[in-house]
Write a structure and sequence with these properties.
Elements: H1 15-19, H2 46-51, E1 55-58, H3 63-71, E2 77-79, H4 94-116, E3 128-139, E4 145-146, H5 152-164, E5 167-179, E6 188-201, H6 207-214, E7 236-240, H7 243-247, H8 251-280
Helix pairs in contact: 5-6
Length: 281
């Protein structure tokens, strides 16, 4: 039953006022632009709080991945991209290709850090806590792994192909490593995952729209040639799966991996302590 005592906060406009023509000799004043919304407070996850004074390396130069991690409060990142060429054969399945590439990135940066800075970078630098690496590929419906576009013509052809072929898939592999305090072989904990998202471009996207998007150059540095988090969203009709996976880093699985490698370290320490205690008897 409706509440007959309800009083609106502001009275609605009358129909008579709304129906009156606008006086062009005395037009209404333009509205002031709205104030920007305040930024939300950072998330206070126990995991992020525990890492606040630790060294966490992002083995990627992607500003999008760094921004996604900052959204959950992980802002004290050290960015060290892997410099090893990504030379795995495209004959691998997309799952294997992206996982091997991300694992190579993580291992390369981790080993360099351990070899060159085993106790941190200095008196004020904490020792390494985590290395986070990721790799994202776009796979056409034909199974072809798409690279970054090589030219404007290649970029246009790539986006036309994605539009005309229906659904394509985006795979992101995430690898997280942590040194083990127990120093048991191999000396580190490693966890990984591969996430898949299906993306459908709108079939009625015109060639003119594709050309206009290509000339923004937003997708020039992205595998598949578009950025769903930016202007490239105009090309997308729908997705099935994680949005941030298409951006380049699925946050929920990444946080899960971080928790798991740190828990692995604690469990290994407990097992090591138990083994030492048994040896003393």
């Amino acid at each position: 039953m409706a509440d007959t005592n309800y009083t609106p906060i502001e009275p609605p406009p009358s129909y008579e006022t709304a129906a009156q023509p606008i006086n062009t000799n005395n037009p209404p004043k333009p509205l002031k632009p709205p104030l920007p919304l305040p930024l939300p407070r950072p998330m206070e996850l126990p995991l992020i709080a525990a890492l606040r004074n630790q060294k966490v390396i992002l083995a990627s130069a992607s500003p999008r991945r760094k921004q996604l991690l900052a959204q959950i409060g992980l802002t004290n990142l050290t960015v060290i991209p892997s410099t090893v060429p990504e030379a795995f054969p495209k004959s691998l399945s997309p799952f294997e290709y992206v996982l091997q590439t991300a694992t190579q990135k993580a291992m390369t940066v981790y080993r360099a850090q351990i070899d060159n800075h085993p106790d941190g970078d200095g008196d004020d630098e904490p020792p390494l806590a985590l290395v986070i690496a990721a790799d994202t590929v776009v796979v056409a419906s034909s199974g072809q792994i798409l690279e970054k576009p090589r030219s404007e013509a290649d970029h246009i052809a790539m986006l036309r192909g994605l539009r005309d072929s229906g659904v394509h898939r985006v795979y992101t592999a995430v690898v997280v490593m942590a040194p083990l305090a127990s120093a048991r072989d191999p000396g580190y904990a490693l966890e990984s995952t591969v996430e898949e998202t299906s993306v459908r471009f709108a079939r009625d996207t015109s060639d003119e729209t594709i050309l206009a998007y290509v000339r923004t150059r937003e997708g020039a540095d992205k595998a598949g040639g578009y950025g769903i988090q930016g202007v490239g969203a105009i090309l997308v009709e729908r997705i099935e799966g994680s949005f941030d996976n298409v951006v380049g880093l699925p946050l929920r699985p990444t946080v899960g991996l971080m928790e798991k490698v740190l828990r692995d370290d604690e469990e290994m320490e407990d097992e090591f302590a138990e083994a030492e205690a048994e040896d003393t008897y």
